[in-house]
Specification:
Blueprint: H1 2-7, H2 11-17, H3 34-38, E1 50-53, E2 57-60, E3 65-67, H4 96-101, H5 133-154, E4 158-161, H6 163-177, H7 205-211, E5 220-223
Antiparallel strand pairs: 1-2, 2-3, 4-5
């Protein structure tokens, strides 16, 4: 806050730039020159909601028309909308998009019950609000690789998380998020409305690396084919 006071002399502009949420509840902006850019003579910060977009510009909710040659939409991330681009279907015909419509869950952030041999990187609750996701990706790649090697060694053809194991993982994640700044009440891409936070890992990256070091096949249904689980 002191940096804001030192950087922005205009009290009205400073009030608009003062957050009404805890630091970290939204993704933190790391950039030099942000405050300075907003104070340039040709820049104006408008915080009123938009009521209409016309052929010549934007009309805000106070009925003011703002002329615009170009409009850039920068409304945030939708981390799990990739299923709108392609379909993922399980052996029973279940659609992943429909499955996730009831709640976005996974096991260990890389696999999903009901979808054998389907793996993903940066899946549910492996994003970060406090470190580099490259750390998470590297741990996930190692985990998936070891899981596949374990299948090959045993001569198995498929693997998928047991529902109970996936539910336990999800419950543990949500319990870990309780009281964290990322679920403290602001509107951000970390959360989908009032739904639980399906995006962020609530613990340290060291813990994630440790928990992803070696797959436990007892957490999975597996077999030579999908009709013969072992």
């Amino acid at each position: 806050m002191q940096h804001l006071k030192d950087s922005v002399a205009d009290p009205e502009l400073r009030a608009k730039l003062t957050p009404d949420f805890q630091l970290g509840c939204k993704r933190i902006l790391f950039i030099d020159g942000y405050f300075e850019a907003l104070q340039r003579s040709h820049a104006e910060l408008i915080t009123d909601g938009i009521s209409e977009i016309t052929e010549t510009g934007i009309v805000t909710q106070d009925s003011t028309t703002h002329a615009a040659d170009v409009i850039i939409y920068a409304t945030g991330f939708q981390p799990f909308n990739f299923l709108a681009k392609f379909g993922v279907t399980g052996p029973g015909g279940q659609d992943l998009a429909e499955t996730w419509a009831e709640g976005i869950t996974s096991h260990r952030s890389v696999a999903i019950s009901g979808f054998p041999n389907f793996f993903m990187l940066l899946g549910p609750n492996s994003g970060l609000g406090h470190n580099s996701v490259i750390i998470m990706i590297e741990a996930q790649v190692r985990y998936i690789t070891e899981l596949i090697k374990g299948l090959a060694k045993k001569g198995l053809g498929y693997v998928e998380p047991k529902p109970d194991a996936q539910n336990a993982f999800t419950e543990n994640i949500q319990a870990g998020l309780e009281g964290k700044v990322w679920t403290s009440g602001c509107q951000s891409w970390y959360q989908d409305g009032a739904a639980p936070n399906h995006t962020l890992w609530p613990h340290s990256t060291v813990r994630f690396i440790r928990e992803m070091k070696r797959p436990d096949l007892s957490e999975y249904n597996h077999g030579r084919n999908h009709d013969a689980a072992e």
